[in-house]
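Title: Comparing notes on inverse folding

I've been comparing how different people in this forum approach sequence design from structure. To keep things fair, I'm posting one structure and asking everyone to reply with a full sequence. Here's the target:
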């Protein structure tokens, strides 16, 4: 809204009498850019995620995979572990990864063979036996300390804390679910 008002003022400044001065135009243009940049920069993090099947499934931990940042890059992203699990979906055992980045203080709880409740994405293509596939820890595990999530193409690192910010995101079927429960 703020950006729209600033752009409208900038456009109006060209046709009004007297026309706005160049310093005014630069200031308004700069303000519009300052307000627009954070919105554009975070746009990818707020996109709707694929439809999530909120049917709790049992996932058995099979191991961990470590993700390290290239030491030559300028990134300040720390190395992290993702938990590999085997989940039964549609009568088929699928190897996948939990998207939640579990903080180091909770990693010991995810021993090989331990069982956790997870949610899977509705589209089977989301679980194609690759490192890009993900499931999400379900609400009963809100006590697990997490420090972000890794959805393959979308990764977010944040302060450690209990609960899942990922489950608070918007999924493609959330509107359908709300309409069905409201009627």
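Reply #1:
Here's my take.
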């Amino acid at each position: 809204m703020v950006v729209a008002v600033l752009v409208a003022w900038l456009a109006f400044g060209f046709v009004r009498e007297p026309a706005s001065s160049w310093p005014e135009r630069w200031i308004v243009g700069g303000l519009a850019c300052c307000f627009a940049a954070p919105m554009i920069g975070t746009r990818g993090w707020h996109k709707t995620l694929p439809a999530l099947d909120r049917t709790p499934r049992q996932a058995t931990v099979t191991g961990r995979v470590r993700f390290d940042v290239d030491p030559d890059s300028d990134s300040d992203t720390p190395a992290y572990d993702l938990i590999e699990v085997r989940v039964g979906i549609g009568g088929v055992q699928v190897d996948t990864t939990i998207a939640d980045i579990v903080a180091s203080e909770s990693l010991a709880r995810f021993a090989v063979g331990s069982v956790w409740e997870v949610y899977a994405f509705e589209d089977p293509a989301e679980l194609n036996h690759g490192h890009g596939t993900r499931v999400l820890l379900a609400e009963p595990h809100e006590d697990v300390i997490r420090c972000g999530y890794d959805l393959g193409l979308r990764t977010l690192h944040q302060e450690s804390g209990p609960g899942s910010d990922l489950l608070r995101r918007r999924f493609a079927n959330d509107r359908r679910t709300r309409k069905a429960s409201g009627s």
